[in-house]
Amino acid sequence: MHAADRQQFDIQAGRPLGDALRSVALASGRNFVVSSDLVRGRSAPELKGRFTTEGAFERLLGGSGLQARLVGDAYVIVPVDRDDPIGRGEGTDIVVTGTRIRGQGPTGSRVTAIRRDEIDRSGYGTTQQLIQALPQNFSQGPNEATGNLSARDNANNAAAGSAINLRGLGSASTLVLFNGNRLALGGYTGAFTDISLIPSSVIERIEVLPDGASAIYGSDAVAGVVNIIPRTRFEGLETRVRLGTADGDRNEIQAGAIGGLSWGGGHAVIAYDYLETGRLRAADRRYATEDLRLFGGPDQRQRVASPGTILAGDRFYAIPAGQDGRALRPDQLVPDQVNLEDQWRFVDLLPRQVRHSAYLEVEQSLSDRLTLFAEGIFAHRRFSKAIYPSENLSPSEVTSANPFYVDPTGAGDPITVYYSFQRDLGPEADRGYAQSLGGAAGLRFDAGPWVIEARGSASQQRERSDRVNLLNRVRLAAALADPDPATAYNLFGDGPSTNPATIDRVRGRLSIGYRYSLLSAGLKADGPLFPLPAGEVRLAVGGEVRSEHFAVPYSFDDTVGFAPDLTPSGGFPPARHIGAGYAELAVPVTAPDMKVPLFHRFDLSAAVRIENYNDFGTTTNPRLGVRWEPVEGVTLRGTYGTSFRAPSFDNLRVGRSTHAVFAFRLPDPSAPGGSTQTILIRGNTPGIGPETATTWTLGTDLEPGFLRGLRLSATLYDIRYRDRIAAPSDLFSFLAQPDVYGGITTRNPSPVDVAAYFADPAFFNLSGATPASIGAVVDGRTQNLSSVHQRGIDMSAHFETSAFGGSLSLDGNGAIIDRIDQSITAGAPIVDVVGKIGSPVRSRWRGSAAWTRGGFSVATFINRTAGYDNNAVTPVQKVASWTTIDLSIGYAFPDTAGPLRGLRAQLSATNLFDSDPPYVQYSNGLFGIGFNPEASDPLGRVIAIQLVKSW
Question: Does the pTM exceed 0.85?
């Protein structure tokens, strides 16, 4: 549709101005960008009759001090006065995620934006909840629910952080930016960007590019890029408070304020946000148990219990309840029975967290052409969580020297006691903090049609984790051998039956602190090169330098000796230094005014980025994009490029802290007796290089003229991901599956090599092997090992119309994964793992319907996660799909409401019908539970009320 074409509009007076403007933009077939702070609280005048797009915008914006500008493919609402500092980023100054060229989006790719009004309407209180609801994001990896439940993809992170995992390719394969800048990484060894430290209240919008973009941004942008853009154009004062509860089992409080002001040639924004969430106890969720018989599963309760169980010879004897172990007789023991205990009854599924965060942004014009800008963000989050007692599950040996020793056989031999220390020591728990500080500053020079920008940024994240109520096994052994009943440890009672001073003496603690630092600087210029009939050819060129550093400055281990071990983990490489240069070209080939048949619009783009890393060398990544609109309302687009992920500091770690050699007897169907003595090497392979990927997309966008307000989109993508950094983990399959693991296995190793392994200082002979008995060597070190070929499709739909005297908006977004062909080692069979436990599900969907009239609004959302196969159990378990429904109802008081003027109230319910996660017989090898934390969360229904006041 040409801007000069007239259309019929029927917009009633009093409709929210933002909704009215969006309706006009959709009718034009264009995208629409506006800061919610520019239109908040404003109502639209009546618009009835036939208007051009520009005429409709002029009528709606008359007297508002705002105007609509066509920037690339989108209408952008900005202040009229260019001297207004809030308008400094207007028009062609706007940069969209996925491109370095101002005034347009990435050619060939589709960027999904979660806007401020959608954030408020969603009912979610945190940034991680907003992202986790996005169908293209999968829950595997670090988040609140997976912490201590899964170790896959760095899920067992140090400080209960949350990551983004586009396409399910791993959190390290998604690049996360804050206002275009990288942030220091968090988690064990700096593995991911912790978005839980970014408050949702300061976000203007979240732009998601689900496409490879290393040609634009460098490392990590394999699955895509997420750019979290703050509210830099806010003016005035806004306060908010949010109170929520998960049916009384977990409460949350959020409060904050944002203020902005402008002056001649400058403006500033400052914000503060407080968030407190309570713990969610496993005892409050019926599926959070090891006894799965209620669901038709097995009883997986541990024999480590209180009262405990004695193993003497080859028989078990249950210790009776209701006694303190001081007068226990052998005839009171229950032979051939085991006391079982559900360890989850002491555990928290979600931690208690308290976060303080602040944001500051300042911009000042130094002259007509030169502008100074700066911003900073700070966050500090404390957490505490009772965790599964993985460190305290081992049995203890007790000899006759112990004054409470009970001998069921009468032989006087040492016995083994399976005893739970949770009631003695208190629940095993993690507590600590994560702290992030980042800032950026720069100068922007307007050199006519070109803009030159110099920018520098710095960021640091510190984390500390204290694991408490552990056992110091050395001091416990001494207490068990103590003959004095006043100071010896008593494992034979029901509950704490030991002198409290002795309990305190065996109490251990494990603490560790991490620090990740990042410094970067860049210089960029972009502008027009020369004109073509369809428009100007535009170019962006630039260079960047970056330095990253990871360290473990603090370590305290009081579990391995009589005195604490204060030696921090080492072996990490020194600071990493990166230098990069890039160029991006945008070429308009045809435009609507040229009236070329079947080429209503045709655009091309090309980009390339060269990066040099001091630790592994140079990588070059190109990207091509095409956008073809054969007729108005029909767009075909596509991209092709390569991307990469640099090895992490942990991947490059070397030395005794990571290197170990073990002698194991592993299952081997080809060997006599069914097993073979094997040497297993663990650690990192020297010379680990980057992961590399080739990606392409094909998409279409349809905006049919016969149904104004409808927009449909579909994108087919293909990712070939090679040299993935991994360590083979399926220990008992190494020799049993030679077709899979043959590439890392050496049969009948030479005596010289075997002798060298036995002489290694890090050798552990766990199976009593002799050099002559070794029949195989398996290189199980972390290395560039596997490959993944993933193919899928994204789909979205939007329809907006007038209904019931108001505005009705319908939205749908879905991600379907067709295949994930994975090969664990070179030459191994290719296996499709999509829809299998531990891998992404085949599809995720989110749909919504929102209706507004005047200040009243109601929105409902439906979320669906497809079912999958739990092939970790026999027979394979078919896991059901999971559907939840959210609802929010809001009201914005009119300008005539006196003291309530500017107040917006909202009542929301996420997971309205309190739908439990589908039952899964989940196990991580150590314990079991009745749901899958990688595909669902245990929060349940959350009711929240939010009040936002503009002053």
Answer: yes
